[in-house]
Design brief:
Helix content is 20%, strand content 30%. By secondary structure, the chain is of the alpha/beta class. The protein binds uridine-diphosphate-N-acetylglucosamine and calcium ion.
Length: 467
């Protein structure tokens, strides 16, 4: 049976009080609508039609060719939104699977189970429901004595008795496609909201004798709809919990899961320990036996086995095995760090390759550089890569030694095994094996320190006299 996914994402989301359209608000780093489309992919939906309106261009730019789009120019309600998919789905037969764009926590397991029950029972419509303690704001599920759904009643249309119903509409349902569009045509907006409500379709079908079922999720959090920032933060907490739990069950130690922020796509190897205050974002991949954090903030970064990253920020970087990063290092885009490297405190790396065994232990800037293996870069040494117009390359070959507080004025090359004396400002190539010294020669004046002090004292005394 073909599955025709429809995502309702045209609303502005007034209750968010935001310049950003509601379905674009992120949960664990990914927009709400992105999570919903992910789940449609997981249940192998044959079509994915996203109904757009407010922020249509933003939503389309974000989802790209993952979906097809139908425009709802005026937001006249969820039923009206669903109608906009009809033209695109012309000629299709199968199950129309409608999801709201603001339910990021729904799982493919629940959707799949609802669809299976729907097919096996020969129902015309099925709604995914959840049993919650705080049903306020959700549509309530009304069932008859046989347990069949007879209607869904919106909060504003509830009678006092219906307000007590704890089984709610998650906003997700599946329908025989033809029956859906036939029932949508009968919708009226004679309700408290003056809108064409998708929820009324269930009542219309039940009334005309069609079988309408409810499938209740085992986990009530799956049904959470995000209408305001409080619900957004709750969804974040639930999703964070799920992601962290998955990693822990895969063999990752997370010291304090409530204080560890890992996005959905991140991969982490077994026996890695993640310390509190850590953010792992984007397509970050961490190997086995690593120590990450406390306070590691990594985006789109690859870290191989046995590496340590403490109190550091890494973006679009790759780091080899058994390397130590931090505390307080900053690896900017294009940092390519080898195995058994040490990047110590207050070191910044940008667009630079560092070979195996190299050490940059303290207070350095290495930018636009190619650094070989087993190089030692002393405290305070920097690449002077920018002359105000161009970014120039510094090359430091294997086994070279760069002393403390050296300035390497790029473009410049330090040959294999060369030795650059501390405090030097290097403007020319240092050939392999050579020693370079480029600093003012020191002169000592014997006994002069005390003379100088006497002179200062005399000046001070004179000043005080004249006051
Ligand atoms: C809706 C359901 C409610 C359910 C709840 C679950 C209806 C009438 N109500 O209420 O029963 O318990 O979701 O979270 O369906 N949208 C459009 N076009 C419109 C109106 C809405 O595309 O004209 C989209 C919104 O962008 C949103 C989704 O539909 O993604 C749901 O709309 P929303 O206003 O959030 O509905 P709720 O009041 O939460
Ligand atoms: Ca909602």
């Amino acid at each position: 049976m073909r599955i025709l996914g429809i995502v309702l994402a045209a609303g502005q989301g007034k209750r968010m009080k935001s310049k950003l359209y509601k379905v674009m608000h992120p949960v664990c780093g990914k927009p709400l609508v992105g999570h919903v489309v992910d789940v449609l992919d997981e249940v192998n939906a044959d079509r994915k039609v996203v109904i757009v309106g407010h922020g249509a261009e933003t939503v389309k730019a974000y989802l790209g060719d993952r979906a097809e789009y139908a425009m709802q120019a005026e937001q006249l309600g969820t039923g009206h939104a669903a109608m906009q998919a009809e033209a695109l789905l012309e000629g299709e037969d199968g199950i129309a699977l409608i999801t709201t764009g603001d339910t990021p926590l729904i799982s493919a397991d629940s959707l799949g189970a609802m669809i299976r029950q729907h097919i096996e029972s020969g129902a015309s419509a099925s709604v995914l429901t959840a049993m919650v303690d705080q049903p306020f704001g959700y549509g309530r599920i009304v069932r008859n004595a046989d347990g069949l759904v007879t209607a869904i009643v919106e909060q504003k249309d509830c009678t006092p008795e219906q307000q007590w119903i704890r089984e709610i509409n998650t906003g997700i349902g599946c329908f025989d496609k033809h029956k859906l569009f036939q029932a949508l045509k009968q919708l009226k907006n004679d309700n408290a909201q003056r809108e064409y409500l998708l929820t009324d379709v269930f009542g219309i079908l039940a009334e005309q004798g069609d079988k309408v079922l409810g499938y209740c999720t085992a986990d009530a959090t799956e049904g959470m709809g995000i209408n305001d920032r409080v619900q957004l933060s709750e969804a974040e907490r639930v999703m964070r919990g799920r992601i962290n739990r998955r990693h822990m069950l895969n063999g990752v130690t997370i010291i304090d899961p409530s204080n560890t922020y890992i996005e959905k796509e991140v991969q982490i190897g077994a026996d890695t320990v993640v310390y509190p205050g850590t953010f792992l974002r984007g397509v970050t991949v961490i190997g086995e036996d690593c120590m990450i954090g406390p306070h590691a903030d990594m985006t789109n970064t690859v870290v191989r086995n046995g590496t340590t990253v403490q109190h550091s920020v890494l973006t679009d970087a790759t780091v080899g095995e058994e390397t130590a990063i931090g505390p307080f290092a900053y690896l900017r885009p294009g940092s390519r760090i080898g195995n058994q490297v040490k990047i110590g405190d207050f070191v910044e790396i940008k667009n630079a390759e560092l070979g195996d065994g190299t050490k940059v232990s303290h207070l350095s800037y290495v930018g636009d550089a190619v650094v070989g293996k087993n190089v030692n870069i002393g405290c305070g040494a920097i690449t002077v890569n920018y002359d105000g117009y161009n970014k120039n390359i510094t090359e430091i070959c294997d086994d070279a030694f760069v002393g403390s507080n050296v300035n390497l004025i790029a473009p410049v090359r330090i040959g294999e095994g060369a030795y650059v004396v501390a405090g030097s400002t290097i403007t020319h190539e240092v050939p392999a094996g050579d020693l370079a010294i480029a600093r003012e020669r020191q002169t000592n004046k014997p006994g002069y320190a005390d003379k100088l002090r006497q002179r200062f004292k005399a000046i001070k005394a004179k000043k005080q006299e004249s006051k």
